Amino acid sequence: MTLSARLALSRGTFALDVEFTVPAGSVLALLGPNGSGKSTVLGSLAGLLPVHGADVTLAGRQLVGPGVDLPPHERRIGLLSQDALLFPHLSAVDNVAFAPRSAGQSRARAREAALRWLTEVDAAEFAKRRPGQLSGGQQQRVAIARALASSPELLLLDEPFAALDVDSAPAIRGLLRRVLREGPTTVLVTHDPLDALALADHVAVLAGGRIVERGPTREVLGAPRTAFTARIAGLNLVAGVATEDGLRTASGEVITGLPAPDVVVGQAAVAVFEPSAVSVYPHDGEHHGSPRNTVEVTVAGLEPHGPVIRLRVAGGPPWAAGLSADLTPAAVADLELEPGSPVTLSVKAATVAVHPAAD
Ligand SMILES: Nc1ncnc2c1ncn2[C@@H]1O[C@H](COP(=O)(O)OP(=O)(O)OP(=O)(O)O)[C@@H](O)[C@H]1O
C-alpha cells in the first residue's frame, strides 16, 4: 500500500509543490509552521482540493494523474481530524458500521465488524451510546474505529489529539500507536514533536509549501537542520532501550525518567526533556535531593535564547553530546561560565518523559 505523491497547486498566493513516498504500512508525520501547507497536502490526497500537475498512486492504483482524478469515495482513504465528526443521530456502533455498510456489506456483517473495531479501540462498552453521551476522548476512539472499519489503504490523521484534554491525549496516542503498528499506510499532521516521535517512522517538515527536511523521525528531530525544526524539537532527546524507570543508552548510561504507559521494557525508547529542566553546577557542586540524572560535561557555547542563556555542551559521554540547558544571565555570571568551563548537568527524573520510539 505504498503511497507515492507529487502535488502541485496554488491557493491564492500560496503555492504547494511537494513530492514524497510513504512505504506500505509506515507512518509519515508532516510538521511545519502555521500556513506551511500541511492541511493542503491532506486535502489534496483526500481528493477535496483540485490539484494540477499532480501524480498520486496508492498501492499501485493511480488516484490522480494524466486524465485521472478519482472522487474521494473511490480513493480508499480514511480521514481522522481533530474533531471526531461522528453522526450525532447514530449510536457509536452504527457510526462505525456506516463505512462497511456503504461498501455493500450486510447489516449483520457490518455490525460485527464495527463491534470488532470498537473492541480494538477499547470502546465496546459505549457501542449503544450516541456521540452526545460520550466524552471527547471516547468520541475520538469511536472515530478511530470508524476510520479503520472502512479498511482504508491510506489513513490521514489531521491533528488527532489537538482537541483532546491533556488527560485523554496520551491514552489516545497510545491507542493509535497500537493500531497503526499493523495498520494502513498513514500520513499524520501534527504540531507536537511527541506525536511524531511516538507514531511516525519518518517526518517531512514543510515550510512555504515545500519540504525542507525529511528523514527518519529521530534523526530529523534529534538533529534539526532548520530553525523551525530546532524550535519545535526545542528539546533534549536521548535515545536508548527502555528500562523499568527510564532507559539505557547505547553506551550503557542509565537515564531515569517517567515512562509513558505504553513504554515496553527492552524496546527502543527516547528520553525527552526541556533545556529549562537542566540545572548546571560546578563539578564539585551540591546537587542532592530528588532523584536526578547527572553528567559531567564541558561548556561548548553560550548564546542568548529569548530571556535566558542557552548553554550547549561538549565532552562527556556520547549521549550528552549536543544537550542544552537554559540558565538565567545571573546564573551564568555567578557560575563564571564560559566556553571550556567544566560543569555538571543535573536533570530531575520527574522532568524526563520517556516515550516509545517509533518502530
Ligand atoms: N481556501 C483558501 N483559499 C486561499 N488560500 C488558502 C485557502 N486555505 C488555505 N489557504 C492558504 O494556503 C496556505 C496553506 O494553508 P494550510 O491550511 O495548508 O496550512 P497548514 O500548514 O495546515 O497550517 P495550520 O498549521 O495553521 O493548520 C496558507 O497560506 C493559507 O493562507
UniProtKB/TrEMBL annotation:
SUPFAM superfamilies: MOP-like, P-loop containing nucleoside triphosphate hydrolases
Stored InterPro entries: AAA+_ATPase, ABC_transporter-like_ATP-bd, ABC_transporter-like_CS, Mo/tungstate-bd_C_term_dom, Molybdenum_import_ModC, Mop_domain, P-loop_NTPase, Transp-assoc_OB_typ1
Record GO biological process: molybdate ion transport
Domain called Mop: residue spans: 288-356
Membrane-traversing stretches: none
Native organism: Amycolatopsis jiangsuensis
Domain of life: Bacteria
Record-level Gene Ontology MF annotations: ATP binding; ATP hydrolysis activity
Keywords assigned by UniProt, alphabetized: ATP-binding, Cell membrane, Membrane, Molybdenum, Nucleotide-binding, Translocase, Transport
Key word Transport present: yes
Record protein name field: Molybdate transport system ATP-binding protein
PANTHER family assigned: ABC TRANSPORTER I FAMILY MEMBER 10, SULFATE_THIOSULFATE IMPORT ATP-BINDING PROTEIN CYSA
Domain ABC transporter positions: 1-233
